[in-house]
Amino acid sequence: MKKLTAFVLIAITVLLAAACGILSGDKEDLQPGDTVVPPQPEGETVELTLYFANNEYVITGSESLEKLLPEKRTITLANKSLAQAAVEELMKGPEGEGMGAVIPPRIKLIDVEVAEQIAYVNFSSDGMNGGSMEETFLISSVIMTLTQLENIDAVQFLVDGKKTETLMGHIYTMDPMGSYEF
């Protein structure tokens, strides 16, 4: 009887731990004790600088041109982190002239979390394909946009919650990347 009771207690403990996510393997770099940046208070208004593709560069390929152009945007946070809101704004595309979208509509964002000065940007694998220029613009615009924020020094890209060698087959993404790389 004691063995049965012990087995049931262990089984319940394991099930509770799994249900709470303690045994989950997702976001493998987050460790107990890591500082996770909480969502901003709902309704807070902030100004961001977003980076979008320079259409003239895309058309001409001239290396004398900036590949990305900044766009200032004021947004109201809706109970989400500033990093998540910034990537969602990038996904909406530019409002100004001469700039192009950097994240195609087919690509879906799962979430963005920040821990220990690294933003973990998690995309769905659905629709995650494209050419080298598309991948370069996506990666560089996310990095340039997020690393300007106070608590982010680098970006780790994830696909379906896991590190991946590359997002679209052209740029190595297994390690966190900073703005110095673009």
What do these coordinates show?
The protein is 28% helix and 23% strand. It has 182 residues and is of the alpha+beta class. It folds into two domains: 1-26; 31-181, no CATH class. It has a four-stranded mixed β-sheet. Helix 3 runs antiparallel to helix 4. The protein is globular and about 40 Å long. Mean pLDDT is 84; it is low at 2-27.
Largest sheet: 4 strands, mixed
Give the CA-based shape.
globular
Radius of gyration: 20 Å
Count of domains: 2
Mean pLDDT: 84
How many H/I helices?
Answer: 4
Count of individual beta strands: 7
Q: Which class best fits the helix and strand makeup? A: alpha+beta
Poorly predicted spans: 2-27
How much of the sequence lies in strands comes to: 15-25%
Percent in helix:
25-40%
Q: Numbering strands along the chain, what is their spatial order in the largest sheet?
A: 4-5-6-7
SSE topology:
Layout: H1 2-19, E1 45-54, H2 55-60, E2 68-76, H3 82-92, E3 99-100, E4 109-115, E5 118-123, H4 132-147, E6 154-159, E7 162-163
Parallel strand pairs: 5-6
Antiparallel strand pairs: 1-2, 1-3, 4-5, 6-7
Could you write a compact summary of the structure shown?
With 182 residues, this protein is of the alpha+beta class. It contains four helices and seven strands; from the N terminus they run H-E-H-E-H-E-E-E-H-E-E. Strand 6 and strand 7 form a beta hairpin.
Which features characterize this protein?
28% helix; globular; 2 domains; alpha+beta; disordered N terminus; 182 residues
